[in-house]
Write a structure and sequence with these properties.
Distance between the termini: 67 Å
Largest sheet: 2 strands, antiparallel
Oligomer: single chain
Strand content: under 5%
Number of helices: 6
Number of domains: 2
Strand order of the largest sheet: 1-2
Number of strands: 2
Structural class: mainly alpha
Order of helices and strands: EHHEHHHH
Length: 153
């Protein structure tokens, strides 16, 4: 079964909480109510996955709106499967997942995203993430140095 993991339902709920906050702190928009109902049923039945093809229409539309705000592919343009690796060192997908990606459903793609995120071993999650963190740290240090120079008479 192609399914939507409960953490993706939570992410979609948070997306809608930010997109359409409750005006009175009680009333929920239609999309949020639909996702909350799916989430509550998953918790009640102790299910980790919701069947993406049997979601109520409002919940499916709300999920798709959140899904459209996420990156489509984990690719970082360093594909080792093209060099013969069964598992891409760059993104963590298998050769088959890379090949079938355009045909996969949103639920199938999110399950792959979840797996590679949980593994956290691909370059997407280590070398490049470390470099990005270093770049942010250097940018903050430069901004702080500039702020000190601006204060100096």
């Amino acid at each position: 079964m192609a399914g939507i993991h409960i953490t993706d339902i939570e992410a979609a709920i948070n997306h809608w909480r930010a997109k359409r906050p409750s005006a009175d702190g009680v009333t929920l928009p239609r999309e949020l109510r639909a996702l909350a109902e799916v989430y509550a049923l998953m918790v009640f039945h102790r299910e980790d996955l919701a069947d993406e093809f049997s979601l109520p229409v409002a919940a499916a539309e709300a999920f798709q709106d959140w899904y459209a705000s996420t990156p489509d592919t984990p690719c970082i343009a360093i594909c080792s499967t093209s060099q013969g690796d069964e598992m891409c060192k760059g993104c963590g997908r298998t050769f088959e997942e890379v090949q079938l990606w355009p045909e996969m459903t949103a639920g199938e793609k999110r399950l792959v995203w979840r797996r590679i995120t949980m593994e956290g071993t691909s370059w997407r999650f280590n070398k490049y993430a470390e470099r990005a963190a270093e770049d942010r740290q250097q940018a903050r240090a430069a901004a702080q140095a500039q702020a000190l120079l601006d204060l100096t008479p």
